[in-house]
Amino acid sequence: MAATKIGDIRAKSADELNTMLLDLRKEQFNLRFQRATGQIEALSRIKQVRRDIARVKTIIGERARSAATKA
Question: What family does the Swiss-Prot or TrEMBL record give for this protein (predicted)?
Fold first, then answer.
């Protein structure tokens, strides 16, 4: 699975972003668990998921800041 593009993330609604963030965090937990037990096959996926989480959190933060300045 490839990393999520920033344009795809920006196109999502707030609910979709929160759902995506929750799914990514679950995947990150599972990958960490697999690494600890020695069952992981794609170590690079850990890095991709971590960066996708950062991308989603960045967009959520940008939207929160822009809403705060408009209010």
Answer: Belongs to the universal ribosomal protein uL29 family.
Give the pLDDT of residue 1: 58
The domain that holds 50 is classified in CATH as 1.10.287.310
| Total tally of structural domains belonging to the chain | 1
Q: Which of 15, 45, 52, 9 is nearest to 30 (CA)?
A: 45
Q: What's the burial of 31, exposed, middle or buried (CB within 10 Å: 0-12/13-18/19+)?
A: buried
> Does a structural domain hold residue 40?
yes
Q: What is the pTM of this model?
A: 0.89
Closest to 45 (Cα-Cα) out of 56, 32, 63: 32
Residue 71 has pLDDT above 80, yes or no: no
